[in-house]
Amino acid sequence: xxxxxxxxxxxxxxxxxxxxxxxxxxxxxxxxxxxxxxxxxxxxxxxxxxxxxxxxxxxxxxxxxxxxxxxxxxxxxxxxxxxxxxxxxxxxxxxxxxxxxxxxxxxxxxxxxxxxxxxxxxxxxxxxxxxxxxxxxxxxxxxxxxxxxxxxxxxxxxxxxxxxxxxxxxxxxxxxxxxxxxxxxxxxxxxxxxxxxxxxxxxxxxxxxxxxxxxxxxxxxxxxxxxxxxxxxxxxxxxxxxxxxxxxxxxxxxxxxxxxxxxxxxxxxxxxxxxxxxxxxxxxxxxxxxxxxxxxxxxxxxxxxxxxxxxxxxxx
Length: 316
Ligand code: TXA
Ligand code: MG
Hints:
Blueprint: E1 2-3, H1 6-17, E2 22-24, E3 31-35, H2 39-49, E4 58-60, H3 64-70, H4 75-84, E5 89-94, E6 111-115, H5 120-129, E7 133-134, H6 149-156, E8 161-164, E9 175-178, E10 185-188, H7 194-201, E11 206-207, H8 208-214, E12 231-232, E13 243-247, E14 257-262, H9 267-281, E15 289-291, H10 300-311
Parallel strand pairs: 1-8, 2-8, 4-6, 5-9, 10-11, 12-15, 13-14, 13-15
Antiparallel strand pairs: 2-3, 3-7, 4-7, 5-6, 9-10
Helix pairs in contact: 1-5, 2-9
Bound molecules: threonylcarbamoyladenylate and magnesium ion.
């Protein structure tokens, strides 16, 4: 564990830029950070957290200028950033077409959650790395969020570099607010109270309960990417009209086009490539995306979870 100083922050930034993970303090909870533009580093986050699904990750920035490089920035974002940044407020905004952020960090979706943490060490690390950092809370999936460097160490052991900034002052995660709807939608209550947001915006926020009540199926709330083409799973014999997503060295012949998720059968490499590959193959040239069997081990279960949902009936 490293008490944070300029040398350690420089070292941690170099680790980040070389594709490694670093845990850093924020005012809410400790984050498990990676270069948000590096697909493999982002896949490593999911891998070591043991998340069974690819949930979108918050992208941490050192200011509005860095955020504006990655997301569309409407007036309402400016108003909220002026009032609450740096601080425990994550804004979900449309990702820019030329955003460099890994598609895996947004679970393949067209939006990004961005936030500027109110913590000198976090801000110094982001600035030194000169990259936005994707960071979920630094706990294993299903465990409570860490509010001290000791908590992170207990969870992940000596191998992970942890910048020690003492205890987190807020102690609960950031409020997540979706600004891509007509009325801002509260996705997760957190460090900035709903009432404070409503006072600044002069409108009542929509909640997930309101939204679910107006929809046929709450499943429609999922903002995740699904391809337009049908998806066929566990394919060992692709059709000549199909595009094939292959996994491992033994690739069957016959498909019109093949993209390999990993020639060696590596789950992290496959996760890193998954969403970009789906987007490339999701073209009218093909009748379907055929996917080879992917073992459930490691990130395989999260990959299969996403593919199963892509393959499921979308009439709802
Ligand atoms: O306070 C925090 O937010 C901490 C610190 C480290 O910044 N981070 C954190 O990350 O709590 P995580 O991954 O444990 O939770 C992120 C939440 C999830 O509920 C996720 O679904 C939501 O933010 N989120 C992130 N990006 C999103 C997006 N593009 N659309 C919808 N929800 C998003
Ligand atoms: Mg969490």
